[in-house]
Amino acid sequence: MELIIIIGILLALLYNFVNGLNNAGNSVATIVATRALRPFHALILAALCNIAGPFLFTTAIARTIGTGVIKSSALIPETLVVALFCTIFLLIFFTAEGFPISASHALIGSMAGSSLAAFGFSSIIWPSAGMIHDVAMAGLAGAAAGALCLSVIFRILNGPAWLGAAAGAVGGFSVIIVTLMAAGSLKITGLLAIFVFLVVSPVIGFLAGFLLDILVSYIFRFSRQSTRNRIFLPLQVITGGIQAAGRGANDGLHATGVIAALFIAGGLADGFYAPAWVVAASALAVGTGTIFGGWNVTTRIAKGITRIRPLQGFCASAAGGLVITSLTITGIPTSSTHIISGSIVGVGATRGKNSVDWKVVREIVTTWIITFPLAVTISALFYIIISILLKIRLVFPGFSW
């Protein structure tokens, strides 16, 4: 096995470790916020469920990462190593700053950037015109229906109709896309899925958390707070574990997909191949990273967005876990960060707009938006710089840096 393949495998596992650091807050935020478990115990639970996740669900995410975005001819060891290095840098930087980012978007963006620098635009698997047309038509129909319905409701409630129309358009777009995909009537793959689910993931997380909180709160509307706490504290631990398993199946398989791509690039496999030891090592890496959790990120999600009580924590975890698991099975590398943060905002919004710190939400959303283009830019520039330095070394053998 060539040295660069070994380096790539080690970087892929390091990426999963740092991914666990950044996204630990996703798995334990609600549990920590309500003190259902002590922080370290919550991290242990999340880590164990992260490790179990890839073995409980499909490896579709790994296949999407490894073969669904970049053409196999452009996935050479050099581009993959550069992509992994740049992704790790971004994850470490944003973890230190306390911002949860999408590791999948950072990784795919970095892979796209290094491939573009090496082979140009032909290296990317671009969506077909038919797929774009289908998504546009379905999305416009859903957005129009949602905007009409919510604008009418807001007007009846003496609220701003424009706000209802805007919220309804985003919600309608997201609901129709997910519904049609679940029914098998709409297929979205590759980069188009990444961009579409940048909007869909947090919105679906928000809606799931919002609606489940309203339902559960209505059912227990006559119960005392102490009774709710006794019921939902243990339930929250269970749903938090399920959520962590779904996240492990999604994020834990990122490194598996990259390592499989390295095997293809190095001539060690003819097609997508993920040995059991690769899946196990990837899962263990993300689980270990979760144990060491980035507390700045955890604190921002657990306490910065909204106040979370056991009932809200249960609803956020249950809704987030259900959405993550459902999307993971489809093979879409959606962001667990987007979904879980969205569900937390959703349960907070049931108590009124002033119950959510929208400044924190705006900061987090801004980070999500810039992640992909930032990853593409940094990775492309880094690959170009490395290429120039190597050419200088070939022309001037005595040159050193």
Structural class by helix and strand composition:
mainly alpha
- Main sheet specs: none
Beta-strand residue fraction: under 5%
User: Roughly how many Å apart are the termini?
Assistant: 28 Å
Task: Write the H/E string, N to C.
Answer: HHHHHHHHHHHHHHH
Mean pLDDT: 82
Shape: globular
The helix count comes to 15
Number of strands: 0
Binned, the helix content reads over 70%
* Uncertain regions spanning at least 5 consecutive residues: none
Radius of gyration: 22 Å
Describe the structure.
- Helices cover 78% and strands 0% of the residues.
- The chain has a domain of 233 residues.
- The radius of gyration is 22 Å and the shape is globular.
- It has 401 residues and is mainly alpha-helical.
- The protein has 15 helices and no strands.
Which properties best describe this structure?
401 residues; mainly alpha; 15 helices
How is the secondary structure organized here?
Layout: H1 3-34, H2 39-56, H3 60-67, H4 77-97, H5 103-119, H6 129-156, H7 161-182, H8 190-219, H9 225-251, H10 254-265, H11 276-291, H12 295-304, H13 310-330, H14 336-349, H15 358-395
Helix pairs in contact: 1-2, 1-4, 1-9, 1-10, 1-11, 1-12, 1-13, 1-14, 2-9, 2-11, 3-10, 4-5, 4-15, 5-15, 6-7, 7-8, 8-13, 8-14, 9-13, 10-11, 13-14
Short précis:
The chain has helices spanning 3-34, 39-56, 60-67, 77-97, 103-119, 129-156, 161-182, 190-219, 225-251, 254-265, 276-291, 295-304, 310-330, 336-349, 358-395. The protein is mainly α and 401 residues long. It has a domain at 3-125 and 226-305 and 366-395.
